[in-house]
# Entry
Amino acid sequence: MTSIIGPTLRREAECEAILRSLPQWFGIEDSVISYARDSGVMPTFAVDGAQGLVGFITLMEHFPASWEVHCIAVSASVRGTGIGTRLLAHAEKWLAQRGARFLQIKTIAAKKTDPHYDQTREYYIRRGYSPVEVFPTIWHPSNPALQLIKALT
Ligand SMILES: CC(C)(COP(=O)(O)OP(=O)(O)OC[C@H]1O[C@@H](n2cnc3c(N)ncnc32)[C@H](O)[C@@H]1OP(=O)(O)O)[C@@H](O)C(=O)NCCC(=O)NCCS
# Structure
């Protein structure tokens, strides 16, 4: 049985390897480097398997009651085996226990045709996240961002 570790994680190299297994989602080199670095600085939970980390979720605090999923990724070879759902549920519970009320996510908006991010949006919606607004230029005009949010309490 794999265990969830965190929220203090200093396993940047393993997080980077997970991101690099998912080039369809994490294809921008600067983003890969900064998400890996942030996993060692911001609250991060990970699933630790026999061969090392297989997935992680990094959380960003905007206000004590309002947090954001900064990054979530599950190693390509074990996607679809429940790891992401476990990580998200664990993060939601940890946040609710410390008084957080909202968890938001920004991901690529449907305006851009991308079957990979279609899966990602569906994943969040099925886990109770509601689309709130599209920000056309917050990242880059070619990457419109969809904000989704869930009330935790
Ligand atoms: C999104 C992600 C974190 C989910 O983690 P996961 O461990 O694969 O997810 P789970 O096994 O818990 O659940 C799988 C869900 O994804 C869906 N899914 C769709 N295509 C899939 C695929 N090729 N492989 C795995 N799951 C897939 C499954 O249908 C399932 O949804 P459902 O249970 O609502 O029917 C993970 O797939 C991932 O890292 N994706 C790429 C990176 C990404 O999208 N990050 C977020 C960027 S904002």
